[in-house]
Amino acid sequence: MPTKKKSSTRKYSPKASASVEREMKAMKQGKLKSGKSGKKVTNPKQAIAIGLSEARKAGAKVPKAPEKSTAKAS
After folding, report:
1. Could you tell me where the DSSP H helices lie in 1-74?
2. Alpha-carbon distance 28 to 52, whole Å?
3. Whole-prediction pTM
4. What is the pLDDT of residues 21-47, one digit of tens each?
5. For residue 40, what are the β-bridge partners?
6. Number of helices (H) and strands (E), helices first, in the chain?
7. How far is Cα 33 from Cα 27, in angstroms, rounded to an integer?
8. Is the pLDDT of residue 14 over 80?
9. Measured distance CA(56)–CA(6) in Å, rounded
């Protein structure tokens, strides 16, 4: 079977990558705080999410944030 070619477009802009990198460094230094509570961020995934969120606000090319589901599974 022939393999599919992947698209050559970037998913994230270099500006977005720089934002995530900056937030990861701040997390590793213990300087990154959460938005509402102000607690120290220790989870790398949360640091990435903060970096991508800031990049979106700055107008960088970043895919849309996933929708939050509020319904609980029964």
Report:
1. 14-29, 44-58
2. 17
3. 0.72
4. 999 999 999 999 988 899 999 999 999
5. 33
6. 2, 0
7. 8
8. yes
9. 25
